[in-house]
Amino acid sequence: MTKPLLFALLGLFSLTGCEQSADDIRPANYDVLAMETGHWEWDGTSFFGPQYTPASVGYSRQLIFTANNRLLLRRSNQAEQVINYQLAVGAGGLPTVTFNTNEAKLANSDVKYYQITPHDGQQLLQLAGEGAAFDAGGYETYHWVKE
Questions:
Q1: What PROSITE patterns does the database record attribute to this sequence (predicted)?
Q2: Which domains does the chain carry?
């Protein structure tokens, strides 16, 4: 094969999209917020009154924020919903994540402030509905489970 033909073929392959982006080669359970492979395991949701936990509702709940702005919601490790989400910066420069799971018992504002903090050797995710102080929105807590 001549060099000009070889370079022409290489150029053709580069134009046809043979390259993979980092998003293409990440596993499906790679979480953007944690920047690791795993999921956020639900610890509980509190409102100005009722509190819900896996024990009180009878199922566990897992979240995975994927690189393509999809939130994978699982209940008891079974696929439940795929939801669009959006990251942004809210009032006061606080990071927000916007999504709606349409869950009656665990309803929360679509826009949630989020914070990831280390606690007792674990990584914690805290979500607070943007209007929690006004509309009794929920305060959700999760811990990171690395896979």
A1: PROKAR_LIPOPROTEIN (PS51257)
A2: 25-146 (2.40.128)
CA of 55: how far to CAs of 2, 43, 45, 58, 138, in Å? 69, 10, 12, 5, 18
119 forms bridges with which residues in the sheet? 122
Tens of pLDDT, residue by residue, the chain (147 residues): 444 433 333 343 334 444 445 555 778 889 999 999 999 999 999 877 788 999 999 999 999 999 899 999 999 988 889 999 999 998 789 999 999 888 877 767 788 899 999 999 899 999 988 766 655 567 899 999 998
Q: What single string gives the DSSP state of each residue in 91-138?
A: GGG-EEEE-----STT---SEEEEEEEEETTEEEEEEEETTHHHH---
Whole-number Å distance between alpha carbons of 62 and 44: 11
**Residue that is written with structure tokens 């008891």 in the block:** 76
Question: Residue holding tokens 């819900």?
Answer: 52
Cα separation, 124 vs 114, in Å, equals 10
